[in-house]
Amino acid sequence: MSADQSTPSTPEIPPWQHAEHLIATALRHKGFFVLNFNDERHHAPLHSGDTTSIITPDLDIRGHGFSAAADMKWKTDTTYTRKTGQDETGIDANNYAHYRHFEMVSGLKVWLFFLHEAIQEIAYAPLAGYLFTFARFVPPDVATYGKGGMVYFPYAVFRRALLEDFQSGHWDARPLLYRSHS
């Protein structure tokens, strides 16, 4: 499948929104119920408390006795980092902090899904109990992206599926159901 089929570059559908739709659809095909938290302007809403608000991950996932939240990131490619000697992928440090807080107050795991367009692959893993153990913070003065810095993860620690397998339902959703990563 070509890159333009997976992430159309039209002004009406930005690549990140199309990727989010792909993940939600793939989860629904595996028997999950998915609620998109984004509002009509495509902003993730905030869970508001008395004195603070928390950025909410993109999707609420329910099914098979399982509940979680998920955030979808569209990336052009993984990044090879000379310092660590490995391919990495990451998220904005501000979102990382909010998702960790969201996990603590909601009791739900946050799963991260990354669509890497150049290699036509989806990578996915839970943040709590797993990804956070591999997190590498890059401060804002060094990070290319992210006003508050970036948090990177080794790409090798993710479950991965080719985009075409993900779209056709030939990917392993069982890790979502495992209780060992909570």
Strand content: 25-35%
Whole-angstrom Rg: 16 Å
- C-alpha end-to-end distance: 35 Å
Biggest sheet, spatial arrangement of strands = 1-4-5-8-9-12
Q: Quick check: average pLDDT?
A: 84
Q: What is the 3D shape?
A: globular
Uncertain spans = 1-9
Structural class: alpha+beta
Order of helices and strands: HHEEEEEEEHEEEEEHH
Largest sheet: 6 strands, mixed
Beta strand count = 12
How much helicity do the residues have? 10-25%
Q: How many helical stretches? A: 5
Provide a descriptive summary of the structure in words.
- The chain has 182 residues and is α+β, with helices and mostly antiparallel strands.
- It has helices at residues 3-6, 15-29, 93-106, 163-168, 174-177, and strands spanning 33-36, 46-48, 53-55, 59-63, 66-75, 79-81, 86-92, 109-116, 121-126, 136-138, 150-154, 159-162.
- Strands 1-4-5-8-9-12 form a 6-stranded mixed sheet. Strands 6-7-11-10 form a 4-stranded antiparallel sheet.
- Strand 6 (79-81) and strand 7 (86-92) form a beta hairpin.
- The chain is globular.
- It starts with a helix and ends in a 5-residue tail after the last helix.
- Residues 1-9 have low confidence and may be disordered.
